[in-house]
Amino acid sequence: MARVIAVVPTYNEIENLPLLLPQILQQDPRIEVLVVDDDSPDGTGKWVEEVSANEPRVHVLHRAAKEGLGKAYRAGLRMALDLGADFVIQMDADFSHPPETLRTMLAEIEDHDVVMGSRYLHGITVVNWPIERILLSYFGNRYARLITGLPITDMTGGFRCMRRSLLERIGLERIRSDGYAFQIEMNYRFFRQGARVKEIPFFFLDRTRGTSKLTLRIGLEALWVVWWLRIAGWLGRL
User: Fold this and answer.
1) Is the pLDDT of residue 146 over 70?
2) What SS3 state is found at 7?
3) How many independent structural domains does the chain possess?
């Protein structure tokens, strides 16, 4: 039976994770969860440690400090591969990525290298965002598509399922970006490897518990990373 590991980065998600974790596990008996916790002051990491002692499908990676989403994902993806994952899922801990969509992802990954959840595949399927944030995200994605030339409707989404072989080909150690830029760089490297990509629609629900980790620096990084990717790609330096 194929081994599937969902990598879930956390920082102060004690309000969400006890509700989210069982919902992820019940989607498919193959799914395991690896929580990558950045030393959450609210005890998220400690709670996962206690759960993992009695639930073999739950794992935790403790990191010493909050160092950014990209670094958390890189560490989690590497550990998932070390644990023997055949398929690795990326998803958030705040319910913005609905666990029930995992069933569709796992069905579609059989014929693809990566399956991506998209907020913009069929119109705009975002709930509870103010209109200005929706417009910023939507047109930011169009900007990233224009500069990189990638045929993806949701360039900055972080909800996806990937084959082990694809992650090994792109070389996680070569990824430099963080935040939204991390998602863009991953997508760019997927296409450069000739990956078979499938986008599926999902409803993105903004968090109702906890606080957002989005910062101005994360947004600004995405603006210049798309140009670095395009130029580095032209020069063959990726």
Assistant:
1) yes
2) strand
3) 1
Does residue 98 sit in helix, strand or coil? coil
- CA dist 69 and 90 (Å) reads 11
Q: How far apart are CA 129 and CA 75, in angstroms?
A: 30
Q: Do 83 and 72 meet the contact criterion of CB atoms below 8 Å apart? A: no
Range of the domain at 186: 4-235
Cα-flanking dihedrals φ and ψ of residue 172, to 5°? -60, -30
Alpha helix locations (H) across 149-207?
164-170, 179-192
Paired tokens of 229: 């990717």
pLDDT tier, 69 (very low <50, low <70, confident <90, very high otherwise): confident
Q: What is the CATH number of the domain that holds 8?
A: 3.90.550.10
Tokens of 133: 């944030």
Q: What is the pTM of this model?
A: 0.90
Q: Quick one: tokens of 92?
A: 């958030």
> Crossing angle for the helix pair 216-235 and 131-148, nearest 10 degrees?
10
Given a contact cutoff of 8 angstroms between Cβ atoms, the answer to whether 27 and 104 are in contact is no
Q: Hey, how many other C-beta atoms are within 10 angstroms of the C-beta on 190? A: 23
